[in-house]
Write a structure and sequence with these properties.
The protein has a ten-stranded antiparallel beta sheet with strand order 1-4-5-6-7-14-15-20-21-22. The chain has one domain. It is built from three helices and 22 strands. About 0% of the residues have low confidence. The relative contact order is 0.10. It is mainly beta and about 400 residues long.
């Protein structure tokens, strides 16, 4: 657009390109999701072995692909004599006939407590931005920076109807569930309240009150992502240093390691043994182990162990050194360099577990498959040396 006569001339803006796109895509159900299968069984009827068939998979012959339509718009700009490149994108995606595992009442004695169905409609929208620039470009010193980030908002628009024709407002009963007007796999957990009534610095069972109902706590998947990469060149490009920082935020992570340890008998976790622990951490152990009894029903909660998963991580440090031409020639190479690298160097987070990336689950696609730290090893730190020969 910046090449057109109608576009305003701005001194620092060198080029401006606008883009707009719309597309649709689909996701097929599993190859056997629609099939209803049976298996042979023998049961005793009037004390006589009688052959029969038992339903093995519920199936759903009405299954069809879920379909998504996405509108994407944004711009690319070069600024300040093309030293700064800016890319901004906004997307708005709507998915209908989304594939959902619809729970079935256990009292119906089904062979499977879930059946794959086309029920949901989901809206996703957000921003993606990247900027890279060369701050210094001298013979003996260069400095370039690349920053990229994104922010996502998603909401369940509908969940269809149940077998009786009643509108589904919520599917799922666990901590992570799908509810109309809330994020996919939104967290719904019982809150609790505590007070150190006798001022002794120790939270006891009677000083914690767990609510009987659940409330919305937040997203179970990161909605804010940011990475910052910076490179430095020294000695006429003979030495290059690279630094990469990562950020994730806007979500909750289950510290299931601490919750599990504090639930074991005899109770021996730090939170219920060490009086120097904060009142907040003492209270969450009491809430999940003892809870509150109302009309004969005991209500406990893991609310306190669903923590803010926000973190900054020094993801990578590396240094690349050019090998002198004389040594490269001895190795019969045109040129060569050596790279020293370190990955997962350090993390900054208020998360009280081992590491906010110590994820026990394999993905984030199911209602019961949300990020959780459960006796899981954190990301390892790696230190590498690599020799690159160019022939």
């Amino acid at each position: 657009m910046s090449d057109e006569s109608f576009f305003p001339k701005i001194n620092f803006l060198n080029t401006f390109r606008y883009r707009l796109a719309y597309g649709q895509s689909g996701v097929q159900p599993g190859a056997t999701d629609a099939l209803r299968t049976f298996q042979a069984q023998t049961v005793n009827v009037a004390f006589q072995p009688t052959p029969g068939l038992q339903e093995n998979a519920l199936g759903n012959p009405n299954l069809k692909p879920e379909r998504s339509g996405e509108l994407e718009t944004g711009f690319e700009a070069r600024l300040f004599n093309s030293r700064v490149n800016l890319d901004v994108t906004y997307y708005n995606k709507k998915t209908k006939d989304a594939l959902i595992n619809l729970p079935i009442a256990a009292s119906a004695a089904p062979s499977n407590l879930n059946v794959r169905s086309n029920l949901a409609s989901v809206h996703n929208n957000g921003f993606e931005t990247s900027i890279n620039t060369v701050l210094f470009d001298r013979r003996n010193f260069g400095w370039d920076v690349t920053i990229s980030g994104s922010h996502n908002t998603n909401k369940v628009a509908s969940l269809g109807f149940d077998a009786s024709g009643k509108l589904n407002k919520t599917i799922g009963t666990g901590s992570a569930r799908d509810s109309i007007g809330f994020p996919v796999n939104g967290l719904f957990i019982r809150p609790y309240h505590y007070t150190d009534a006798n001022k002794d610095g120790i939270i006891q069972e009677g000083e914690v009150v767990v609510d009987t109902g659940v409330v919305y706590k937040g997203y179970s998947a990161p909605r804010d992502l940011l990475s910052v990469q910076s490179g430095f060149d020294f000695f006429t490009r003979k030495l290059r240093l690279n630094v990469l920082m990562d950020y994730k935020g806007g979500y909750n992570l289950l510290n299931n390691t601490a919750s599990f340890i504090c639930a074991q008998s005899p109770k021996a976790c730090q939170e219920d043994q060490d009086p120097s622990m904060s009142l907040e951490r003492q209270a969450r152990a009491v809430a999940t182990n003892y809870g509150t009894t109302v009309n004969g029903t005991k209500y406990t909660t893991a609310w306190g162990y669903w923590e803010n998963g926000q973190y900054w991580r020094l993801r990578e440090l590396s240094a690349t050194v050019q090998v002198p031409a004389r040594l490269a020639t001895r190795m019969r190479a045109r040129d060569a360099n050596v790279t020293f690298g370190a990955r997962n160097v350090h993390v900054w987070s208020k998360y009280t577990g081992v590491d906010p990336e110590a994820n026990y689950t394999s993905g984030n696609t199911g209602t019961n498959d949300v990020p959780a730290d459960f006796l899981t090893q954190p990301p390892k730190s790696y230190f590498t040396v690599r020799l690159n020969l160019h022939y």
